[in-house]
Amino acid sequence: MSLKNLPLRLRSRATWADPARMLATLESFARTEEDGGRDIATAARRVRDDELRGHLARHAKDELKHAELFRRRAAELRGAGVAEAESEAKGARAYDLTRGRPTSEVDAHGFFKVGLLDELGEVPYVAMLHVAERKAADLFTLHRDLTRGDPPTCAIFEEILRDEHYHVAWTAAMLKRWREEGRESEVKGALKAAKTSRFMGGWKRLGARSAAGFGRAVMVLLYFTLLAPFGLAARRNRQGEQGWRARPADGARPADRAPLDRLRAQG
Amino acid sequence: MRILGLSAFGGESAAALLVDGVPVAAAAESRFSGLRRDPAFPRRAVRFCLREGGLDAAGLDYVAFHEKPLRAFERVLVSQLRGFPGSARSFSRSMFLWLGDRLWIKDRLTTERGVPAEKVLFVEHHQAHAAAAFLPSPFERAAILVAAGAGEWASTSLHRGQGAALEPLGEVRFPHSLGLFLAAMAEHLGFPPGGGEERLLELAAYGQPTRVEPLRRLLRVAADGSYEIDTSPFRFGFDAERLCGPGLAEVVGPPRAAGATLRLSGADRADADLAASVRLVLEEALLALLARLKQAAPEEALCLAGDVLLHPSLLHRLLRDGPFARVFVQPAAGDSGPALGAALAAHAQLGGARSWRQEHCFLGEDVLSDAGAEARALPGDDAIVDALLEALLRGGQVGWVRGRFEWGPRALGHRSLLADPRRAAIGAEVNASVKRRESFRPFACAVTAEAAPALFELPRGGEWPLRFQQTLAPATDAARAAAPALVHADGSARPQVVHAGADPLLHRLLTRFGEATGLPLLLHSGLGLRGAPPVRGEAEARALFARSALPALVVEDRLYARS
Predict the structure, then answer these.
(1) Is A27 on the interface with B (CB under 8 A)?
(2) Angle B457-B503-B131 (CA atoms, 0-180°, nearest 5)?
(3) Is A225 an interface residue toward B (CB < 8 Å)?
(4) Of A67, B65, B123, B186, which alpha carbon lies 20 to 30 A from B41's?
(5) Closest chain A residue to B436 measured between Cα atoms?
(6) What is the ipTM for the molecules in this complex?
């Protein structure tokens, strides 16, 4: 087995080997494709360039078709007796297609943000699609290889891969056209930003996790050294203050504190 | 005076914009992020509020935050030390959070939002709750009870309100907290955090309070109306993520593993019995607090806030057996409410007049249109009501999205799922098509004000809670016979009483449904999938429609129907 993408490969293999996770994964894929399709359909309605509108409209249709394929396969599995994950926790361990997308492109559920075109503009939007679709093609190739033992599911990935190749091709063609129209630097910048946001997203997550781990380790060290005597003393009053505690009314506080000063105080 | 109120880092963050004492916008961050509860800084809610007010940060007079961060940090630090040495992990976690982020809210507002430091104000958390409960209420004078998890130090507080002034009367301090006690018991029963409390109280309807005595030893009510919690079997004194300690199993029995079958019917109702016992001891503690409050503030009216008082079953008991004649509960009584409360309190303390009464909850974002080609246009209100009625009579369910979304957790008619309640299996059908909730959970309903007295035993003094779907009401025989799916195991239902003046369109739909079926009553729930808040705009509503088996959806004046 190649070491390339080994963790992803192992996680995906586990997903497709477990019927409950497979079901949840297919439904998750369906949701993601559908949200992507809706966002791209919205984008298609908002652009003025005819060629771009045509590609976006077809792309949106493809994504919605993928959603339907995934949903139909999930329904077949349900019909064949595959049950829901027994617990929410197990359902949550389903492979989530949106993990392949940078967080800036997805909402809190991990779905494509509706209206991304408005936020980014045409060139960065297509550049983002281009980078995302290339990544998606890699992911779907992996999933196709891992589902060879399940021909109906494998066939879905085969079909989707054909569409993904078109998506990569049309976005590349649009970017090429813009380059030839003298927007070279804009295209270059947009592609760089799309790639960097993926790379930087991963790098930042790694950095944040490392820093958080180190910070927490320092805190634990402080806790058992500097703070230990205070902790031992504070334990005596573990139950805290009981019964009613009077609070002075704001009007009864020292007169030299005007309302605005009281409100500005953080403590 | 333009004040932006903010709540963040608690259970749910929110923003509210007040212009001359009147809120022009208020929304929880979760409505934008799509999470059920979102405690992160309310970036998107702030953006929405400013856009709605036509302002940028420079146009604000003040930004009012819902807590005093230094005092809250003091409480966290002291409680971590009290938990020594068992609090090592939670200490590192909470210090990392506080020192890395929460403590620097003023800097964050200054650097990220461009708000000058002198414009940033801090209102005590319980004062913000009390302001959110009293200042929008219809009462000139009222006693006020706030019962929540934990503020800076207070977990429960009593106040008196008169005009625009709030007078604090006393408080019970952390770790003695009814909110945390309830959350810990929900955790023990295997419910996930954030929403588990509501499920526990709904489960209580299936059980008998057979386990009250051990719980009374854990939650002791004092003669002066205060209460004390034996914190030894709990961890919530120092750990916000794991609330129960191993000792709790010895007192109330072993915990239910998450996902394990709930014991709520047949011979073994242990989980439901424990839930019923928890509800009873909470009711006892709340009634004692109200008795004390009545002594300290002998007013006719009562205002309530805090997430403990969001629960309809508890509120019903307080209405039925409490000493106050009229009650108002802030519709966003949980952790989002203090965003509005902080702005209202700051406005009042800076000399602003009390100039707003909360008669509705529609302070959120208007529908973001994204019409699909398959939509059918509905010209005018009559056509909308006709389409809704036809969908209900033909398919049994319809989604309805219109106007600004609701402030607070309840869907009150603008992001709603409506269903024909005459079908005995409608609850299961709604769950199968959209909601996908646990089968033991009841559904709320909407009923015309004219028909409500015949269908429900409306609680005394509950006019406002009934408008905002905040309390239970026992169903009459007529309701039980006509709409069994709406009646919970203990014979109660959760009606929203709709007045023609408050929501003419929903009232008209209910009336027309009543004319067609003899029952002006509809099952009413939020239009959202399990684990998500109600939908925000048309694109989300259409996505939900495509994803669910809902037969029809009306968005503003457009109908989407399944072929």
Answers:
(1) no
(2) 80
(3) no
(4) B186
(5) A84
(6) 0.86
